[in-house]
Amino acid sequence: MTQAEFIHGFSKLMANWGMPLTAGRVYAYLLLQPKAVSLDQIAAGLGISKASAWGAAKHLEQVGQIERYGEQGSKRSLFSATEDFARSLVRYSKLLSRIGGLLRDGAPGAEAEAAARMRERSGFYLTVHDAIEATIGELTTGQRRAAAE
Questions:
Q1: pLDDT tens digits, residue range 117-143?
Q2: How far apart are the C-alpha atoms of 7 and 10, rounded to whole Å?
């Protein structure tokens, strides 16, 4: 698989989760970079406009997938995929927990079938939340162990 095929495939998969296609392309591109890169480099590397790269970068920064750094002696920003992936998962975990809790509590006056459907969905969201929390714990424990070695 070439890097272009990886970027294309990755962005298509992320689009299925609601991520804008260009944001998926930018994220995949940044995952492939050994160090932080500028918007000019992102735009050139993907063959997109700088404005498209900026919009995608802003989105990815807001959802915690990438980080922005100032370049010493310049107003230019550099971007990289976040190193602390576990931290970026916390946001999703909290959201899943809130959705699960809301579904578990249900809507007052809901029909029995609707209430049962919400409880069923609640179990799914809360189970996924628990799995993410366990994974975060394992990742952070592994990172601490690696840093100590």
A1: 999 999 999 999 999 899 888 877 766
A2: 5
Comparing CA positions, the residue from 23, 13, 15 lying closest to residue 60 is 23
Model-level pTM? 0.74
Tokens of 37: 């890169």
Angle, helices 3-15 vs 21-32, to 10°: value is: 140
Report the distance separating Cα 5 and Cα 77, nearest Å.
Answer: 27
Decide the pairing of beta strands 37-38 and 66-70: unpaired
Query: 132 with 96: CB under 8 angstroms?
Result: yes
Q: Which amino acid is at 41?
A: Q
What number of CA atoms fall less than 13 Å from residue 133's CA on the CB side? 11
Contact predicate 14/24, CB 8 Å: yes
Using CA atoms, how far apart are residues 40 and 33, in angstroms rounded to an integer? 14
Q: What dihedral angle (degrees, nearest 10) is formed by the CA atoms of 15, 53, 82, 21?
A: 0
Burial class (CB in 10 A: 0-12, 13-18, 19+), 64: middle
The arrangement of strands across the sheet holding 66-70 comes to: 37-38, 77-81, 66-70
